Amino acid sequence: MGSFQLEDFAAGWIGGAASVIVGHPLDTVKTRLQAGVNYGNTFSCIRTVYRRESVFGFFKGMSFPLASIAIYNSVVFGVFSNMQRFLSQHRCREPGASPSGTLSDLLLASVVAGTVSVGLGTPVDLVKIRLQMQTQPLREAHLGLRAGAVALGKPPVYQGPVDCIASIVRTEGLAGMYRGVGAMLLRDVPGYCLYFIPYVFLNDWITPEACTGPSPCAVWLAGGMAGAISWGTATPMDVVKSRLQADGVYLNKYKGVLDCICQSYQKEGLKVFFRGITVNAVRGFPMSAAMFLGYELSLQAIRGDHAVTSP
């Protein structure tokens, strides 16, 4: 079979859908903590969202990610797996090729997947965050408006994902759909390196040499740990990205990545860049565990294999 395989894209779609269903409630909490104010800590944020919006508040904006992030993960996993396979096959044809090149293959494949992910993921994240943030009262956003400018019960700015996209394009143009793209590049390229590389090495470390492939339990554990590592280390730039993308629901405060970093630091200090690190790491485990397990098991079913195969 050639190096390019469509099965990876199909399996990535299934894994992506699983990760959204598992991780969206904590993703809402993470976004509120990073881009909102007056939530205190993680548990205080959860109580506030539940009290104001009931359990449905945690699933705000989920329909769009469920439809789009599945496709997004399909492309990311398909690109990563096919790129890694291409590099591996090319290396095998080289005389005197060394197995030590595996890490460089993983690194390059992760960088390519991370770069591709930004092109697809920035509009998805933007719409998701706008929908998650629009229920926050303006009085709490410290936006410099009159105290009575917006009432708590005011109808949402956006009626849904389609209305949100139309509103952004109408007011900011097509470029508005890529607000925060610089921060997302700085988050996702290193983030995917710290996602795929730990996963592959943890899988190899957990799986006994006698086994032909990792067990579902090994995939779940390695995927979860890789997700916690990746999301934990990506938190500072994730904060900047979330603030840039949440900016604009009512008015714009930031001119770009550097301005957002400077304003955030001046007002709240260095600790602001680690806001949501706990929920990021905690949420990263089940999301990534579901992502990798869904990917590996569906890939196994599609190919008719009897052992789980790493990407």
From TrEMBL:
Mitochondrion in keyword set: yes
Compartment(s) of residence: Mitochondrion inner membrane
Pfam families recorded: Mito_carr
Family: Belongs to the mitochondrial carrier (TC 2.A.29) family.
Gene name of the record: SLC25A48
Protein name: Solute carrier family 25 member 48
Solcar repeat placement: 3-86, 101-205, 214-301
Keyword Transport on entry: yes
Bilayer topology: Multi-pass membrane protein
Transmembrane segments: 62-81
Top-level division of the source organism's lineage: Eukaryota
PANTHER family reported for this sequence: MITOCHONDRIAL BASIC AMINO ACIDS TRANSPORTER-RELATED, SOLUTE CARRIER FAMILY 25 MEMBER 48
Entry's Gene Ontology molecular function annotations: transmembrane transporter activity
One GO CC annotation: mitochondrial inner membrane
Major place of residence: mitochondrion
Key words, A-Z: Membrane, Mitochondrion, Mitochondrion inner membrane, Repeat, Transmembrane, Transmembrane helix, Transport
SUPFAM superfamilies, sorted: Mitochondrial carrier (SSF103506)
